[in-house]
Amino acid sequence: MDIRFSRANDRQVSRGMGDVLSKLTDMGFREAGHWELSGNFLSYRLSEEYNDKRGLYLFVVDNEPLYLGACRSPRTTISNRLNSYAKASRRYETTESFINSKLRNELKNGNHVTIYVLVPQKSFTYNGIELDPVVGLERPVRDKLNPIWNSELTDKRRAKRRL
Asked: 25 to each of 65, 96, 97, 133, 159, how far by Cα in Å?
């Protein structure tokens, strides 16, 4: 599976890659909900079956993956992570506040932000060591999809380190 994007007008434009959503489904992602903005209140709707699950979550607009996150801690659920974006303070420079701002902008511009989730069903062991599939899948999936907001966050962090 080869997914490539080129940047244009601060958004990703797909080129010759077929249907991104079918590729997400092939990877195991399922549509699970969406983001909403009511006045100044950011919230989300998530299918109940994913509220207490761990996994990867992906925000998609117009067939374009914008942000991929993961429930890195064994006690963190998808709902916990989504709540952190919904309730993030815009006064601080955190990943949560950055994503909060990006979500608000998309919704204010009339875009529908869909939430996809991937909940790995198996754990793995290597020479008797249990490996966390959520953490193990995060980087390869991010590298494959190249979500623009993840790239922007990486660029911001690199720029801060240079200062």
From this structure: 13, 26, 29, 18, 35
Q: pTM score, two decimals?
A: 0.84
Domain boundaries defined on the chain: 14-162
Q: 117: helix, coil or strand?
A: strand
Tens digits of residue pLDDT in 104-146: 999 999 999 999 999 998 778 899 998 999 999 999 999 999 9
CATH architecture of the domain with range 14-162? 3-Layer(aba) Sandwich (3.40)
Amino acid symbol at 153: L
| Rounded Cα distance, 92 and 124, in Å | 37
Strand order in the sheet with 114-118: 41-46, 30-38, 114-118, 56-61, 64-70
Closest-CA residue to 153 (of 104, 93, 113, 107): 93
